[in-house]
Specification:
About 20% of the residues lie in helices and about 50% in strands. The protein has about 120 residues and is of the alpha+beta class. A hairpin with a 2-residue loop joins strand 5 and strand 6. The longest helix has 12 residues.
């Protein structure tokens, strides 16, 4: 296990601030599974796009990776990146911070599975 951040995860966090659902969705495989932070389960590009339209609509949204651990499966075909991130956005005129945890499963430099959930207090 290593602490280095896979390029696709770093890019995912950067693209959040662009608020571009199409660009965000392109980081996922066509058959990806997304268990989202603020909603439920989404499947494939259509599902990911549906979520991203809502998620990226938050005013001034940004994402910061706080901690990450990555490992490859024995075959070397998959990377599993697990860690903590924070989302920042404006809600009702006030800056809101949401601390969350994530797991990205990556194959061929695309996200095939993404689980995200708000950290419990």
């Amino acid at each position: 296990m290593i602490k280095s951040l896979p390029k696709i995860v770093s890019l995912w966090a950067q693209v959040v601030s662009e608020r571009n659902p199409k660009k965000q969705t392109q980081l996922y495989s066509k058959n990806a599974v997304l268990l989202a932070t603020f909603q439920t389960l989404f499947l494939g590009h259509d599902g990911v796009m549906e979520y991203m339209i809502s998620f990226l609509n938050k005013e001034g949204i940004q994402c910061e990776i706080i901690d990450n651990y990555t490992h490859k499966d024995d075959s070397g075909k998959f990377q599993i990146s697990t860690g903590l991130y924070e989302f920042y956005y404006i809600e009702s005129g006030f800056k809101k911070t949401v601390k969350a945890r994530y797991t990205f499963v990556i194959k061929n430099d695309l996200i095939i599975s993404h689980h995200s959930s708000v950290q419990p207090n």
